[in-house]
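The freezer alarm interrupted the setup, so I double-checked each line after restarting. Inputs confirmed:
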Amino acid sequence: MNARFSYAWGALLSLTLLGGCQSTSSAIDSAAAHPKLESLQALSKKPPVTRTLDIQSWKTAEGARVMFVEANELPMYDLRLTFAAGSSQDGNTPGIATMTNGMLNEGIAGMDTTAIAIGFENLGANFSNGAYRDMAVASLRTLSDPAKSGPALDLFTRVVGQPTFPAAPLERIRNQLLTAIEYKKQDPGAQAGDALMKQLYGNHPYAHPSTGTVESLKSITPAHLRAFHQRAYAAGNVVIALTGNLTRPQAEAIAAKVSKSLPKGPALPSVAKPLPPKAGITHIEFPSQQTHLILAEQGIDRRDPDYAALYLGNQILGGGGFGTRLMTEVREKRGLTYGVYSGFTPMQVAGPFTISLQTRAEMSQNTLGLVQDIIRQYLKEGPTQKELDDAKREVSGSFPLSTASNSAIVAQLGMIGFYDLPLNFLDTFMKQTQTVTADQVREAMAKHLDPEAFVIVTAGPTVAQQPLPAPVERGNTPPPGVPEH
Amino acid sequence: MTVFSRRTTGLLFSLLCAPLTVLAAETQPTHEYTLDNGLKVIVREDHRAPIVVSQLWYKIGSSYETPGSTGLSHALEHMMFKGSSKMGPGEASLVLRDLGATENAFTTDDYTAYYQVLAKDRLPVALELEADRMATLRLPADEFSREIEVIKEERRLRTDDQPMGLAYERFSAAAYPASGYRTPTIGWPADLKRMNIDDLRHWYQSWYAPNNATLVVVGDVTGEDVKQMAQKYFGQIPKRDLPPAKRPLELPTPGERRLTLPVRTQIPTLMMGFNVPGFASADNQRDVHALRLISALLDGGYSARLSTQLEREQELVTGASASYEPYTRGDSLFMLSAMPNLQKGKTLADVESGLWKQLDALKRTPPSTAELERVRAQVIANLVYERDSITAQASSIGQLESIGVSWHEMDNELADLQSVTPADLQRAARTYFTRDRLTVANVIPETQTQQEARP
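Predicted 3D structure, all chains:
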């Protein structure tokens, strides 16, 4: 299906950051700006009602952190295990985290891949897994009827806790990862993304792609996987998030069973902080019609006190869809791109801040210049009061969406638990966004981002460059910077 | 149906929504009414969280378009954000963003839909905005001149620079010799170049009428509240005569078509598609249910036949999929695709023969009871899982209504699937998996010469 816009990677992640709470926004309302909309005039000026989450948390006997929200409306539950077992723990074997995670459901004592798959599917249960830079995840979604959930949980705990890493499936998974690496070569966006992380992080463990490298993947043996699993899938290294049709005692029993099934051991040490990168442009020659552009700097870790101010600051620059400075200038006024997005990806240690877009190759250099000008001006001047007020209303208004489904709740729980955030993190974050001033946003953005220090990667063909079309100003839209009241 | 809109087999069953008391979850009240101007309104109550999704579905998409005028439906979707009587260009998006709403739109070959997810007290704003652009879209020429450039960028991003996207576009053009499903939703490049604002004005005038639309609202609302709101904002929009809409029907047996598609890829892929009926066009709907079941047997999970046999046992492929979209206005395709396992020296010819063996086995031998029970268990569970998402619920309703099928059909699906007999499966396999219904594409890495010759 073709849509008017689609989110770039990372945008969805940042959406899940939002949580629910009542805010006391003092932002001016937008009704006056749109007098023709009758429904807007009638709308209450209060922030919307949000589902209240009663997050319960405890530790299992083996040291696993548990996060639980009871949600009895549907006869199902979601269980999500988040291990500090992403590719930043690969060490000298890039790809081992991904391969270990991918091998969990490929063999346990007495059951091969197909038997495991049949086991889950006969019960209507969904097993899913994935490895990223900070984390590796294993999830179970099951009906809460004990006749289904009991055997599903039994199988799940064996798959995650006691995988056997048999040799034949290992060859198949290795082959698939090698194919995935080969497949990426046809995708200029993926090429640019990998090169960007390499330039931005140098020798740091965030630098290499989670899929690993061809040489490294070829060297991995079942013994490597067993050793990695023993260390990284230990009970002290996991957060157990649970939501659904469960009582507290039921949740405790499930968490205890999961925890007991895992290898014994402590949390892994956090990865080191990255060294600052060298600014500059890297070009990848690629025979595509468009040139992909990514601009990045090292951003923040998940516990950074400036996060709320930076979140708002980015929403105004290029976060989400329409109405941001980047989308307005590059797409709306000039028709240069289908989408341009910016975002912080806060991680265990400084995750990237990225701006990404694609444009026809003959416009790429001047479009890059345009984007750099927009950033320079924004970092110098900061947001206008109107931009800030709008962004505060947006954040407050979208809060109820962030906890509306079990899948959203379990993702929030996993995130809060994994980054060891306080249980009231969502409330606190929301309050901070509503009280931050324009000066604070400007200062925070300028503190973390230097307009002259961007690491830039372009991927596309070398062609003669064209001048940009003149921007079109829309007469009926108030220019930015003019407050309404 | 573009490759983007195609649901995978696993998700296919998420469309089912039969009320099953055995599931111990109360079925949500669902209300349906039609305004005097023909706008159909369907409301499903889901009171788990204080939010709501509003989707407005128009029965118009690329399969309605004629040669030379492809891409109109999708371009019009883009222009729906460029102002109406109460809003300037881009202004509605800013209003919704200010309210914390998530909004977007999408176009496929059968329908165009606009949606907002937002806090429940804000629903009237979403409805007022939708009603305004249904009735009074401005379609300014200067906005179009930039937006068509954005659309060309979208085409480069999703099709021209995506080898598999490009290959599927060419494949569809061959697989649908007679029906409008051959038309890519984004439009052919030559047609994007010559499209003008008058084409879009005409398209809008022809199809954007209340009697050609379905409003679906799911969330923390009541049927009566939404009825009053819908009446208030949409009730005054006049009904209009619509152009005749013909179902996209295919030749039943067009003859075998073989394509070689060199694209900028490192990895070859085989695509096979059989011309088959869809739910709305089938003479015998047991065939449709049988094809759905076959798709689930082949690719309904990691334990299904393609994964188990072709990927793991035979090591013939590194990945394979089967898919069948029954919810189309017209005749559909049963698709298979797979990548040969190059490490084991397998070729596209090996893959094609391996896939045929799977199809021949279906013609010869009925599936085991255990296999069928597994499919059924997944269907039943997915009925519950789908209800975790108000958007998924609304989309299932809107999609069915937009292809001319009542949303009540969802309630019958489990029973329909259970009614399929082994004989039905064999008959469907024998009827539809024949060479004269087949399109095969060998998608292969292009040579250096081909790469240099490409404009």
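Quick read of the result. Residues 80 and 188 of chain A are 33 Å apart (CA to CA).
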